[in-house]
Amino acid sequence: MGPDAWVCADAYIGPGVTIGGRAIVGARAVATRDVAENTIVVGNPATILRKRDE
């Protein structure tokens, strides 16, 4: 997991999945693929909600 990344309550991160720096995985999201840095993902399966500002 990258620096300053957040994984919210009850989120599932699959085996081998990398969470980039400053990324956010929303509550109860299911991340089965890598999450790029500065990205917010939500849902099942996790999809991009938006990019964070630098």
UniProtKB/TrEMBL annotation:
This is Acyltransferase. It comes from the Bacteria. Belongs to the transferase hexapeptide repeat family. InterPro entries: Hexapep (IPR001451), Hexapeptide_acetyltransf (IPR051159), Trimer_LpxA-like_sf (IPR011004). The keyword Methyltransferase does not apply. One of its GO terms (molecular function) is acyltransferase activity. It comes from Tropicimonas aquimaris. Keywords: Acyltransferase, Transferase. Pfam families: Hexapep (PF00132).
